[in-house]
Design brief:
It is a single chain. By secondary structure, the chain is an alpha/beta fold. The protein contains 14 helices and 20 strands. The strands form seven sheets. It has a five-stranded mixed beta barrel. Helix 13 runs parallel beside helix 14. The chain is globular and about 60 Å long. 40% of the residues are buried. Bound molecules: S-adenosyl-L-homocysteine and iron/sulfur cluster (SF4). Iron/sulfur cluster (SF4) binds next to helix 7.
Length: 431
């Protein structure tokens, strides 16, 4: 989501101000930092980066420094007070006002702060997105109204709101016209999508998927993140009917303990989560499921953690994200007693990560010798002679091809499995 927001910042600055990007900070007229406050560590990085930029500001006082994103949203005035070199503080919902905010900062003497949540205004005011290549990202809904007890998102990004259907389809159509073949629909809980169509009727996420799959040129659809509570039977059924939907679902579970899930206010039990997966696998037996986990939520006992491990074994998760719980000021869980030591939490995290890593390695090994369709995103990181793309289940595959296949789907045989990538032998262009 932050990468998407950053690219929209660039779109608006290019379009309205004629700016371009320099990769040398000492060359820049404006330095922008897009920030994340989901965990404390991400938040700390902001102040260390601002410290590194201070000498640039001292050398050239005309340089403008802006901080956007969730740390900006959460800290507001106090960020500008703590880091005097900052000229503009803006939130995730006010990136379209950047040109104006920078103008005000250039002429005024005080830091300019705008962390309001003007719903929809952002999308009405942003220019059309610039070229993103074969893989494009489109925000369909923003914010979150779930208020899980550990999470800052509802406070930093505001409550859920969905973009109108026509706006989303228009943007995807535009990107498809520029060569996008795969689209990732973005939102904190995309399956909470409730956009209006042109007649004022509410369109839910499964219906949105049907519309997106009809857009010419779009052969692959991904989305992230989805929430188990809104993973409806209608949505599950789209996996039988929409071949463009990849064979991969990212569905954060957080914990396998019902006691912890309830303390997190997630709104489902481990059994309900497993039932979603079982139904999905009826349509797609080999679907790959990835997830997010929080280890060491306040009061998580050994038994609670064992429940998570049991769920992990049962579901057989693919490559997933897991982190130790981070206390976020202002959230309900921040005041809970947390008697478990950091050492114990670290051991739990290590066990969880190792189990998931082994399971996803087994999945990769099982792909050896199979044919896979890959969307080629460009040259591989290691060599300009080699190409690189992703399988439906999100594995990077590097391979040689007899001609330029960038932006195309190709069929490959998987010939090698490594910890972070696969190797493939080129068969043919697929679509
Ligand atoms: N809306 C999505 C996830 C958005 S946040 C969902 O609910 O599934 C991305 C991930 O960050 C979460 O899934 C969670 O695992 C993690 N996260 C959020 N707050 C956290 C915290 N305080 N400490 C540790 N991890 C956290
Ligand atoms: Fe945070 Fe996701 Fe819960 Fe919303 S649903 S509060 S984004 S973890």
């Amino acid at each position: 989501m932050n990468e998407y927001d950053s690219s929209r910042m660039l779109d608006v600055l290019r379009h309205d101000c004629g700016f371009d990007v320099t990769h040398d900070p000492s060359n820049a007229d404006v330095l922008l930092l897009n920030t994340c406050s989901i965990r404390e560590k991400a938040q700390e990085k902001v102040f260390s980066q601002l410290g590194q930029w201070r000498p640039l500001k001292e050398k050239n006082p005309d340089v403008l420094i802006g901080v956007g994103g969730c740390v900006a949203s959460q800290e507001g005035e106090s960020l500008a007070a703590r880091a005097k070199q900052v000229d503009v503080v803006f939130g995730p919902q006010t990136i379209h006002r950047l040109p104006d905010l920078l103008d005000q900062a250039a002429t005024g003497r005080k830091a300019v702060i705008d962390i309001s949540f003007p719903e929809m205004e952002k999308f009405d005011c942003l220019p059309e997105p610039g070229h993103q290549g074969p893989v494009a990202y489109v925000s369909v809904m923003e914010g979150c109204s779930k208020y899980c007890t550990y999470c800052v998102v509802p406070y930093t990004r505001g409550e859920e709101f969905s973009r109108p259907l026509d706006d989303v389809l228009h943007e995807i159509g535009l990107l498809a016209g520029q060569g996008a073949r795969e689209v990732t629909l973005l939102g904190q809980n995309v399956n909470g999508y409730r956009g209006l169509d042109r007649h004022g009727n509410i369109v839910d996420f499964s219906l949105l998927l049907y519309y997106v799959s009809d857009i010419e040129g779009i052969e692959r659809i991904r989305y992230t993140s989805s929430h188990p509570v809104e993973f409806s039977d209608n949505l599950i059924d789209t996996y039988a009917e929409i071949p463009e939907l990849v064979n991969h679902v990212h569905l954060p579970v957080q914990s396998g303990s019902d006691r912890i899930l309830s303390a997190m206010k997630r709104g489902y039990t481990a059994l309900e989560y497993k039932s979603i997966i079982r139904k999905l696998r009826r349509h797609r037996p080999d679907v790959s499921i990835s997830s997010d986990f929080i280890v060491g939520f306040p009061g998580e006992t050994d038994q609670d953690f064992e429940d998570t491990m049991e769920l992990v074994e049962e579901v057989g998760f693919d490559q997933s994200y897991s982190f130790i719980y981070s206390r976020r000021p202002g959230t309900p869980a921040a005041s809970l007693e947390d008697p478990v030591s950091l050492d114990v939490k670290k051991q739990r995290l290590q066990r969880l990560q190792e189990t998931i890593r082994n399971a996803s390695m087994d999945r990769s090994q099982a792909m050896l010798g199979t044919d896979q369709v890959v969307l080629v995103e460009g040259h591989s990181k290691k060599s300009a002679q080699e190409y690189s793309g992703r399988t439906e289940n999100n594995r990077v595959v590097n391979f040689d091809a007899p001609h330029d296949v960038r932006g195309r789907f190709v069929r490959l045989e998987i010939t090698g499995v490594y910890s972070n990538s696969l190797r493939g032998a080129f068969h043919e262009t697929a679509m």
